[in-house]
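Field reference: sequence -> structure
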Amino acid sequence: MSNVTGELAEDLGFRKRLCGPHSSRTIMLREVSILFDSTPPVAGKEHYARVIIDENILGKGTTSTRRESEEAS
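Structure field:
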């Protein structure tokens, strides 16, 4: 991966580690749709963190998977 591509990938939420929300498919299209349908278009990171972690809008089984999903948003 070139440096420019690597930076773009990181800007989009991808990381160079072997585990995480994208490699483990923690957040899927259905979940992204649920998230966007339940938040205002101008929602900030804090709002997404609250609905994903505190309200568990995505129905994750553990706090750690909620946090991984929040990091991907």
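Note: The mean pLDDT is 76.
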